[in-house]
Amino acid sequence: MKLTDRVAVVTGAAQGIGKAIALAFAREGARTVLCDVDAQSLGTAETEVRALGAPVRSMRVDVTDSAQVTGMVEAAVAAWGRVDVLVNNAGGSTGATGLEVSDAEWNAVVDLNLRSQFLCCRAVAEPMRRQGWGRIINIASNAGRYRSNTGFGGIAYSAAKGGVLQLTRSVAHALGRAGVTVNAIAPGSVLSEKGWKEFEALPVELRERVLAETPLGRFARPEEIASIAVFLASEDASYITGATIVANGGWCTS
């Protein structure tokens, strides 16, 4: 197994990509700390991970709150002595997609998608420096490279996810000599329960266009993104840092 006895913290782990990553890590032998604001779904995710026979803990954490992020990392270290892998997966958007976005909506989206990732990177930096090894995996988005390809997410979301790409490069530079790699995954449309509901809410012609513009002709499964996270967390990716792995089915429309 590729992650035997590694301690991994996964944010936004209650469902979708985050839960798929937590399950994939558990199958590879990791001890996982699942974090989310959705306590009910988080409990379900913990039960699924535990059913694999893997050590797991869950915590309700608002990753936009610096004190809670610090507590999250301290709890992982207290439980298992270290933090080897951080997956910054928590994210989301609001209904406003264009320039009509309000100050409050802009701040909320940027805080959740970008500021939270900085807070989590900062919180794990010292534990990872002390042990001389670490993996940070930031979940970005196709929207941060081009635009939101399904008509939701919008300006604030795209700007925040674009910031995640530069944050990844910058933190990789800051932590590289400490033996810590920092990389991003930029998914396109993912067929999580949430992603599917958002897609179904779009006009039929827009849905058809999105699929037509995707060379593979389908959405990703959360498990396909999780397999990339396993690779980046493992020794197989030991000489990769500051990189973004794009998993968007070939979609590249500007």
Which helices and strands occur, and which strands form pairs?
Elements: E1 7-11, H1 16-27, E2 31-36, H2 39-50, E3 56-60, H3 66-80, E4 85-88, H4 103-131, E5 134-139, H5 154-175, E6 180-187, H6 193-200, H7 204-212, H8 222-233, E7 244-247
Query: Which strand order does the major sheet show?
Result: 3-2-1-4-5-6-7
Oligomer: single chain
User: What spatial form do the alpha-carbon principal axes imply?
Assistant: globular
CATH architecture: 3-Layer(aba) Sandwich
Give the averaged pLDDT, no decimals.
93
Terminal Cα separation, in Å?
A: 39 Å
- CATH topology type: Rossmann fold
CATH class: Alpha Beta
Integer-rounded radius of gyration:
17 Å
* Contiguous uncertain segments of 5+ residues: none
Helix content: 40-55%
Order of helices and strands: EHEHEHEHEHEHHHE
Instruction: Tell me the number of strands.
Output: 7
By secondary-structure content and strand pairing, the structural class works out as: alpha/beta
Largest sheet: 7 strands, parallel
Q: Give the DSSP E fraction (strand runs of 2 or more residues).
A: 5-15%
